[in-house]
Amino acid sequence: MQDVFNQFDLVLKAFWLTIQLFLLSGVCSLLLGVLLAGMRVGPVSVLRGAAAVYVTVIRNTPLLMIFIFVFVAAPRLDVNFDFLTKGVIALTIYTSAFVCEAIRSGINSVPLGQAEAARSIGLTFIGSMREVILPQAFRATMPPLASVLIALLKNTSVGAAFGLLEATARMRFFTNNNADDRMLIFLTFAAGYVVLVELLSFGASRLERKWRVAVR
Amino acid sequence: MTQSEQESGASATSMTLEPLIVLDGVNKWFGDLHVLRDINLTVGKGEVVVVIGPSGSGKSTLCRAINRLETIDQGSITLDGRALPQEGKALAALRAEVGMVFQSFNLFSHKTILENVTLGPIKVRGRSRVEAEKRGRALLDRVGVAHQADKYPAQLSGGQQQRVAIARALAMEPKAMLFDEPTSALDPEMIKEVLDVMVDLAERGMTMIVVTHEMGFARTAGNRVVFMADGAIVEENTPAQFFTNPESDRAKDFLGKILKH
Predict the structure, then answer these.
(1) Res A73 pLDDT > 50
(2) How far apart are the CA of A98 and the nearest CA of chain B, in angstroms?
(3) CATH for the A2-211 domain, from 1.10.3720.10, 3.40.50.720, 3.40.50.1970, 3.40.50.620
């Protein structure tokens, strides 16, 4: 355990990479997920179909396989980036499908009359999405979206198997070198994840409450 | 007024007014159900047309088809000489020209009353916020809810919400207004405040198509009554003529049912 505390900067650095992976792929997943959800409820049937196929394929594929694809298969096809970018791409591909479905369920919870009223004052499809539907959908989406983001935060650990020195990878190094303290080292890192997830759920529930007050 | 004078008066309104909304041979099916049957209807500028009929007669569908919230299968609908566009920006631009008031108000529940009224002018018409808010407050004042401007829709009564919905539609400076059973979801004591706003609007010369069960409104503000049954227009006449002396059996039957109590 001495080893861990002597090199605590390494622990912090590893968690910082976890946070970077989470924030970058979180933002990208939200953007791509909103786009996909927009396609799925939009008026263009080709886009509707494409988004539905994407969601079906990705949601039914294990995250590990997507990592293998991005880190092993894609470079063979001359599609290659640095490690962090590849991690963000893999996590984004996977998470955006879940974000899409969370937002789509939120969109479906907005009464049809809201969309009709938006269209009847002359807003276009994109305008009514941006001004009327999505702001209300996000409110209903917050609880399922929080679950998706929590899953994403923990899914960053898959990167450990692909040369990303984030928290889980660093933990493995420490446990390998300090076999006697395995349990304590594990608990230390687990506590780190718990703190991060708790911060995330706290933020989500604050947003949820704030938005709920705004309607009443 | 004699009967013949009333009749000539009715035909004169629809003849001399410049046509604004023209429905020509409109048909629509929901699956096997024929909801609109060969609808021909011309609404002149400044005219107030009241559409009545039993539920399921297609009157709401007719109203919604005019700003293409419902698509039609046959026929044509033109507004001010232009055919309704299919989709996209052109359709959005046309919808901005036609105000719509719904049975269930449909105010944007995440926006304040003032924001409800300014959203269209700012985002669709490109007005400045200051200008839109000034006009928005004036409209809210006109419908009698100016003091509620900063509240959210859920904090208002049904009658107040519906008046805001009318102000929201007026804020777009529409050429015509469509009302789809605007008082049907209201408590009786709130119906009058909404009808008062609508009568005022009619007196100011707004072109209106009003689907309603309010016979009082039809008599005071309507220029013409269109009676629908089973998806077809069965009878058209002046309100006075229609209510006192309906021609068709369907209309007699309908009026008999609603006016006897």
Answers:
(1) yes
(2) 25
(3) 1.10.3720.10
